[in-house]
Phosphoribosylformylglycinamidine cyclo-ligase (Cryptosporangium phraense), 354 residues
Amino acid sequence: MKDVVEDSSYRAAGVDIEAGDRAVELMRSKVKKTFRPEVVGNIGGFAGLFAFDTDKYKKPVLASSTDGVGTKLAIAQQMDIHDTVGVDLVAMVVDDLVVCGAEPLFLQDYVAIGKVVPEKVADIVGGIADGCRWAGCALLGGETAEHPGLLEPGEYDIAATGIGVVDADSILGVERIKAGDQIIALASSGLHSNGYSLVRHALLAGGKMRLDQQIPELGKQRTLGEELLTPTTIYAKACLEVIGECEVHALAHITGGGLPGNIVRVIGEDVDAMVDRATWRPQPIFDLIGTVGRVTRAEMERTFNMGVGMIVVVPPSDADRAVASFSAKGVDAWVAGEIVPGSGMVRLVDDHPN
């Protein structure tokens, strides 16, 4: 009797082309809703086409940014919730673009997954599409790659590249900042998408806490996992509108490195940024990490956003108007400091106690 030998096939090797095609169909309608008038063609081509409007800018400069979500994905995979991390991905990309004053035009995503489950992929990309709509940019194609043997069936990673445009004469940054400028803080929604390796070590390692555990201090009877999956705030649209209404000198996206590590990237060597930490109190999740994980205040400040997701630098004459404008757009904003003569340092003063 002959041994039965199974024919070799892509499916037998772990890649299901039909499942990938079904995932595309499930996400198609959400992706289509992100299309701007400049998008040429439809979903499914080999390359995304975008008819750039050269009449809108005198000296157009393209801006690009690439990022991922990091180990926050481990929380999403443990909780089997996949429709929010795409928003995080978009935020990390477009809010880096807007820092130089660029309007995000389009984004392309990359999803690497151990096994394509169409509904899961549709959730992931659906979240990316939601983020693109909120940011005002098109989701102009991408790639979903099934990697059996490299990733476990339930594992995935996501990344994206975004392209924006700004007029050369309107680029924001170091050269515009002057002593006396006011520092406006925009509230974060919580942890955003940085520092999750420390979060997991501080809160979850050794069974200290559980993701399904309800934490009264977090409010609304939220579980720890729900809090940790709170999507990153997308500031791009509001920031661009305020740039059109007020004189804005610089923006700083507060990601890994916290306030000191990111504000220092947009100030010159002849000034310091004085940030008054008494003007706000970070959300309870930060206290929880510091207390349960025994994380020092210095480590917290250089790892997390501590309640501020974006910094906006404006001249004193426009500070009140900028705060009012952000507030009218649903973004909590306040004057949190000042640019003073110095040597390129960021100084946090009048800290609240933990």
Remarks:
- The longest helix spans residues 118-135.
- The CA atoms of residues 26 and 122 lie 6 Å apart.
- The longest strand covers residues 156-167.
- The chain has two domains: 17-41+60-170, 174-349.
